[in-house]
Amino acid sequence: xxxxxxxxxxxxxxxxxxxxxxxxxxxxxxxxxxxxxxxxxxxxxxxxxxxxxxxxxxxxxxxxxxxxxxxxxxxxxxxxxxxxxxxxxxxxxxxxxxxxxxxxxxxxxxxxxxxxxxxxxxxxxxxxxxxxxxxxxxxxxxxxxxxxxxxxxxxxxxxxxxxxxxxxxxxxxxxxxxxxxxxxxxxxxxxxxxxxxxxxxxxxxxxxxxxxxxxxxxxxxxxxxxxxxxxxxxxxxxxxxxxxxxxxxxxxxxxxxxxxxxxxxxxxxxxxxxxxxxxxx
Length: 281
Description:
- The protein is an alpha+beta fold.
- The protein has eight helices and ten strands.
- A six-stranded antiparallel sheet has the order 1-3-4-5-2-7. The protein has a four-stranded antiparallel sheet with strand order 6-8-9-10, with helices on one face.
- The model has no long low-confidence stretch (mean pLDDT 95).
């Protein structure tokens, strides 16, 4: 059964949060990690951190209070929640000096899929005047879910990159190795899920090693795309949609392949060099 109503919760960030997030996604670009840089700004995917940190500036439990504030339907058999995909659309730039906003929305759909279920949450980031800065659709995969009482219309449809581009070679191909301690830094942006740091917890969830946060992988992919397509200029970011195809282990090398469809539209996929598997597309 769908949870009743939507919620509106306060969120807040400061300059330090912007820097920590940028460092957590591997950025060393002074525009995102040095507050005195004349072009200092929030990295375009930073708002994904807001629905974990809420208004807190301290270590948080998992799930965090703001995650618990948004009602979700009861689903039987769930062993673990995994990031499955996300769509981010920007309407206005967040202030680089910090700010207070509201996060409005909630669960939009729930559908059975494979040996689990897909849940979509739709969120808008707004200021006190009601101006919308970002809209995000966050997709989670509920491992082990069964007897799912489906509802809602699916908002995001994954693109089959291989089918879309056929035999065409990528226009750009870039590589970057994730730092071994990436999860130690990224978690400071509000996602303290032990799956990404605690070996014992990871094994109990079916993984040999802790895996990188899905939204940390998102940040790395977004950064490689922005650097390649826009010289790292956040002002040229409009929207991004991706799905998570397989987990990444800290220290692995990401290979981002990009195809241009037009001057403003691109398809991409990210592979793990060590395994050859697609992790994001």
